[in-house]
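Case study.
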Amino acid sequence: MPELPEVETIARGLDKRVAGDRIEAVWLGSKPEPLKSPAKEIASTLEARRIARVRRVGKHLVFDLESGGAATKRPRAKGQARKANAQWIVHLGMTGRMLVSEPGAELEKHTHAIVQLASGRELRFVDPRRFGRLSVTQDFEAPGTEPLRVEPERFLELFRKRKTPIKSALLNQKLLSGVGNIYADEALFRAGIRPRRRAASLTREDLCRLCFSVQEVLKEAISLGGSSISDYVGADGEEGFFQLQHRVYGREGEPCLVCNTPVKRVVLGGRSSHYCPRCQK
DNA sequence: ACTATTTCCTGGATGC
DNA sequence: TGCATCCAGGAAATAG
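After joint prediction, the assembly is written out as follows.
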């Protein structure tokens, strides 16, 4: 399930492969669920645009678009002048993938969008569970603070007064944008903090440690290409390796790597939360 | 203004 | 073997 490190890995792979390419045509599946913007608007915004670059914002893929250079096929109605800084925003949800395919490649089940590029390749959005979302916008901004750039003071300010469990607060995208279930558990383990602790009950020192742990775990995961569990693969179809570094996530009942105490799993706000009852207080 | 709960969706795992 | 049930989980919607 793509969280910040996986989306970062995918964005880098896509940028390498499709930046500079031009969008020739767009096909969108019939079911509307994955579309946050109207299909017509997505298609008209993408067609005949050049992909300037692909990057990550929070857990979103952002395709920065610029005028394609070549003349557009259809004249535009009045008041529909193209915005200069349009962006295609893709949220992969849990099982979404953005593939760069050769046009002849077999169409995967659950393909909801196909973008034909001037190079002859195609971008294909595949998402069995349909939790992913496509939209177009301009000047896209994450709802919360970017975890890799957050200052400790800002981090403190974000969490200090929350009554909700710290784990739930870490997952709240309006506070930090990009931390998901795996990395919240891993960061809390590294900081020695139980997921159920109320954020407001943590000391300044706890929160500073956690701020560091969040950044550390995200950076390490990015350097290993993210965590490949269930459906995740990078833009080239390669797997990440950070799942081998998980210390608590998915290790219920297995010995803590520090103290050998069996890792516990509790459900918090409907999410599995893994922790060591001895190392985390 | 927050916080907690429910809902969406399907493939894979589990159990009888 | 086949069928039913449960579970995974990000984020929006809803309720408190």
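Observations recorded in class. The mean pLDDT of chain A is 88. The CA atoms of residues 62 and 89 of chain A lie 5 Å apart. We will return to this complex in the next lecture.
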